[in-house]
Amino acid sequence: MDSLLVAPFSHSYSYSITTTSRNLWRSKACANNYCAIPSSCAPKASRHKWNIEKEYNVLKFLKPSLSLYGKGTEEGSTHQECNRKFVVKAAPEQSFESEQPDFDPKNFLDAFYRFSRPHTVIGTALSILSVSLLAVEKLSDISPLFFTGVLEAVVAALFMNIYIVGLNQLSDVEIDKINKPYLPLASGEYSFATGAIIVASSAILSFWLGWIVGSGPLLCALFVSFVLGTAYSVNVPLLRWKRFAVLAAMCILSVRAVIVQLAFFLHMQTFVYKRPVVFSRPLIFATAFMSFFSVVIALFKDIPDIEGDKIFGIQSFSVRLGQKPVFWICVCLLELAYGVALVVGVTSSSLWSKIVTGLGHAVLASLLYYHAKSVDLKNKASITSFYMFIWKLFYAEYLLIPLVR
């Protein structure tokens, strides 16, 4: 009984598909001709469209029954495929264009966090706070005036920091696709225009804040940082100093070791507290120590990026000398700096300063050597991790500098 019911139904269904497919072909041909000869083909196109919709509705109604039959026989599976193909073809006009994703503030902020290079932001803020404390002579100096002066300097400097690191990314998009593909411009999360707007806005806001504050040392620090940061990255004749190892190191040394220490100290000393210029022992130590540290950062930052630098002709010390020699040069320079710092701490006139700075630098020197021995120079992730550890040592030093007496 089941076979008698199935056979006629299958025949009827095959006839329906065949007829429908023929109508579809005619409808498609007529639709194509309609563009060229609208007067003769338009009525036919309307009738065929109505027939297609009618037959589609019939097939849609019979679909459950056809699906049951398709599970029972191989022939039914073929009919089901025809039905499925027909439904796709008979669907009304459908847009296959991908929709643009909506703006997501969370994703934008996450990308901005990476775009701003947070380890440099933290270093800038911490260094300004530390150097500002060197201008404090007595406990009463830590007042609302102090915090206002520090806040003015930090905010203006952070905008300039974002300008410098952002300009470097705009200039190095192709290199970063190899060396740092996680950065927003290299990954495509930010368009070039978005990056350019952020960079330009940061520079404008930095100078605007410096002008509003009216501090000569602060404006000087911002201007020199702007010039050196631009010369370091921008790809125009006579500039893009990052291509040359010595000039690249001098740019970073000038900003991190000299400008940050002297200019921001003078901002607090002369502009905030209205005192005469005095180059104290802690200030001289901070400038000398951070000169070593800045050279290390300038050399080490290129060790993980050797692959992209070779391709694009960046003649860093790591490209010219190799990763291993530059790595151990950096470690030795830092150990030498810690040795000098230990001597400075021990010769302090204050007992508590002797203990804290002497012991503190000894601990940091030991941690540096311990971590250096475990670095795998053939593993980029291991090198990058150690580079971030050097930045942590950088932060720790700025916690010790105000305690030097």
TrEMBL record:
Entry coiled-coil feature ranges: none
Key word Chloroplast present: yes
Transmembrane segment boundaries: 118-136, 145-170, 190-211, 218-238, 244-266, 278-300, 326-344, 351-372, 384-404
Cellular component aspect of the GO annotation: chloroplast membrane
Topology within the bilayer: Multi-pass membrane protein
Compartments where found: Plastid, Chloroplast membrane
GO molecular function terms attached to this record: prenyltransferase activity
Keywords carried by this UniProt record: Chloroplast, Membrane, Plastid, Transferase, Transit peptide, Transmembrane, Transmembrane helix
InterPro entries referenced in this protein's UniProt entry, alphabetically: AtHST-like, UbiA_prenyltransferase, UbiA_sf
Highest taxon above the source species: Eukaryota
Main location, first listed in the record: plastid
Family: Belongs to the UbiA prenyltransferase family.
PANTHER family registered for this protein in UniProt: HOMOGENTISATE PHYTYLTRANSFERASE 1, CHLOROPLASTIC (PTHR43009:SF6), HOMOGENTISATE SOLANESYLTRANSFERASE, CHLOROPLASTIC (PTHR43009)
Name recorded for this polypeptide: Homogentisate phytyltransferase 1, chloroplastic
Organism: Vicia faba (Broad bean)
